[in-house]
Design brief:
Order of helices and strands: HHHEHEHHEHHEHEHHEEHE
Number of strands: 8
Distance between the termini: 34 Å
CATH topology: Rossmann fold
CATH architecture: 3-Layer(aba) Sandwich
Radius of gyration: 18 Å
Structural class: alpha/beta
Number of domains: 1
Strand content: 5-15%
Amino acid sequence: MDGIHSAGSAGRIDTSVVHPARRYDYWLGGKDNFAADRESGDAVAAAFPAVRIAAVENRRFLRRAVAYLTGEAGIRQFLDIGTGIPAADNTHEVAQAIAPDARVVYVDNDPIVLAHARALLTGAAAGRTAYLDADLREPKKILEHPDLLATLDLDRPVALMLVAVLHFLRDEDDPAAVVRRLVDALPSGSYLVVSHATMDFLPPEVVVRIREVMTPAQGPFVPRDRDGVARFLTGLELVPPGIGSLVDWRPDRAPEDRPCAADVSGYGAVARKP
């Protein structure tokens, strides 16, 4: 299948080291995680008990964003980087339910995700999906990958999905430059979708507890404030309602049926390249 590079992937799996995709899978109730991921997930949940709510709401945001882009904005191509372990409502499932000819390229650097690529790559017959074993910090490798170029037409608008991944890039990785490199490679009319962890909505005592838990052993985690998230969207046209809590971006439930911003602690935004 397109984009599967399985050789040697099993040797890269270190079950003693926490991986964000597997920890996220644990929070979503999945089974593709190991003791280190569960221990880390439980430690974070002890400091921030609503973390599972946040994970679920992030998936709901992805679903609404993809449905908007496919159904209202007319997008038929998606580049989803940091896709994680397959769960309900993957990008291709949402997009191809609306437009069967939609094409999706997934990118991740976790060999567990690679092992599940066959599940990801069962899209609609009229469309196409591919999976790249690559890292967000290497945009050139992603953009020049032959499987991406065989699946997406970079002369036509593409929706770049960076959902719950940028907060795993440290400031020294220069994530704004990484995003800019990716967006610059896409034509006018393309979109950027971002969701990002934040502590803006949390009381100070909870912030302290989370910072105590998120040690280097837990892997990189850099929550950013609203201004930090806005930097990723520089030069783009924000789709209303702009940058805000994940639960408030084009919600499909009444306010009383949605969790509060503090429980989700994430910003979400969709923006168009003019």
